[in-house]
Amino acid sequence: MKLTVIVGQCFGLNPVLGVCDIDTSKLRFTYFSVRCVYALIAIVGQTVFLNCFFFIKYFNETDTSVTSNSTLVFYVSNTIITILFLRLAKQWPQLCQYISKIEAADPITDTTLVKKCNVSCILILVMAMLEHGLAELSGMVMAADCQPEKIYETYIVHSFPWINLHVNYTLFLGIITQFLNILCTFNWNFGDLFIISISFYLTSRLEQVNRKIVEVKGKYVPTTFWRNVREDYNRATDLVRRVDKVIGSIVFISFANNLIFICLQLLHTFALLHGYEQAVYFTYSFLFLVVRSLAVSLIASRVHTASRQPVYNLYEVPSAAYCIEIQRFIEQIHGDTVALTGLQFFKVKRGIVLAIAGTIVTYELVLLQFTGITPTVAPLDDTPQTN
């Protein structure tokens, strides 16, 4: 995950030192590093320039809209993500050192793991950059239609309406606010990317145990083999629990964010869009959000699927080779649920995709009722047609 961690540090996330070293003992966290100071500045900037100013505007308004509520949720949730990754940085060195001990005892054999993490990182970030570029283009075109003589100022004031209400616009203030907005946008995507990369590794550890069982399928092996395999499985499941304690809060807010903004994006499809630029942006943004949400849900749920896979192969062990260790192994798999969780509120399994889909449909109907938006059909033309 070196590429993923380094890219995240460019945006103030997970500011640990020594990420480029192979030796995990060189990983460390300190508040007096440049990376940590950068992360703290990002948190303070997002809190003051984005959250506080928007809160003041929000409470001064006599009426609010779904759009203003979604903006508030976007900035607050992504500021929380930045804080959670700062908290994660304090636990990251210890977690990596524990993983290093597991790797020393049982090295991972999946040669495609690094490639999958790097490809996911590049693919998601390129798609996120394209989404942000379309958003910027849509805003610039709208600003050019309104006031073509000062496009950038109009774009900043329209995108961040608390500017000129509490503080006067300056070019420096506009650049700082836009930079902080880019950080929030990146954090929104990086949370899913981080969960995907972690899930790839945990799934590979569990699948490696299953491969050992498949390799001896139909063969007679001693009891010591099954004891060693069960101990490998215990190490893998214990690793899942340790990782879940560290990233559980990130999983929770990531899934909550995706659920909320899918509903809001669906609601925007019933609103009037200005120009094809805005239509292209909303279409691409919604599709990207759905694909990213499905990817993080399905890939993270593979951890649970991989933890259950060994039991199906254990059922096929011949009666002559059956022993107490196999029985204990089967009972352990059935008696325990191994999966990533969102602060223990929910477990990420394959069925969570259907649960999220049902929730989206329910809340979309509620949002339509509260906002008063009703999908309409174009009226039929009653005039007779002439040939």
TrEMBL record:
Keywords: Cell membrane, Membrane, Receptor, Transducer, Transmembrane, Transmembrane helix. GO terms for biological process: sensory perception of sweet taste; signal transduction. Coiled coil: none annotated. Its main location: membrane. It is a multi-pass membrane protein. It comes from the Eukaryota. One of its GO terms (molecular function) is taste receptor activity. It is found in: Cell membrane. The keyword Ribosomal protein does not apply. The chain crosses the membrane at residues 37-60, 72-89, 169-202, 246-267, 279-300, 352-373. Pfam families: Trehalose_recp. GO terms for cellular component: plasma membrane. InterPro entries: Gustatory_rcpt (IPR009318). Belongs to the insect chemoreceptor superfamily. Gustatory receptor (GR) family. Gr5a subfamily. Plays a role in the sugar gustatory response. This is Gustatory receptor. It comes from Euphydryas editha.
